[in-house]
Amino acid sequence: MEPIDSTFPTTRDGLHAYIHNAVEHINADHVRFGVAAPVLLALNNKIGDASTEHTYEFVYIKCSNIATCTTPLTAELGSIEVDVKHKLSDIYESIPTNVWTDDDRFIFNRKKGLERAKPNWHPAVVKEEVFFEIKPIGNATFEFTCRTTTDGSRASKPEGATGVEVIYAIWEYKNEAGQPLPPGSPKKLPVSIKECPYKQVFTKAKFEMEIPLEHVGKYIVVYVRWVNIKHPEANGKYCGPQAADVR
Out of 3.20.20.70, 2.130.10.10, 2.40.37.10, 2.60.40.10, which CATH number does the structure's domain 131-245 have? Predict the structure, then answer.
């Protein structure tokens, strides 16, 4: 929206000439502008004429004559001017951009009309699966390589994906009785997504993920999916699980 003060003349006589031309133009082309009948009626009633008290034309004429101008009338004229400015500005803002012509912009002293609404765009849901490899590299760190195909030659993200989300659980090597088992023993699989309380998000298809060193000697179970960080409604489905030792 353009500031009101940048649209209207600052002198009283200049404003009067502007309002006269603008109102005349609106009445002549109100159908093209899409001005509703009640809005047009309210504007014209406020403008009035030389014989209708408390209207813009009546009070302006009185204030233009030293003999008839009074302090209360001057105050009333100022109030009416503000009201008319707002009524005109509201009309300008309601006119679609594609309706405006150069003549409209010149008469209304506007650079443009109402900006077109930006389309409510949503990206398509990422349907591709994540084919990923997880490799322990020490210091409780894992290297992930994510691809869009099983035989992909390099890490890559599909169209619409801006990142990779990893959810995971950390498990200790224990048997069914809860007794410790040596690292490398059979892992508990599968683990459901609901059993994975941890999450990290990365913007690249190949990345390193760290977890606290206190978990060395345990193992993690992970699920991975493609995500759109700004539009989570487009996130893909989780793939996995895979497991790896924490070294």
Answer: 2.60.40.10
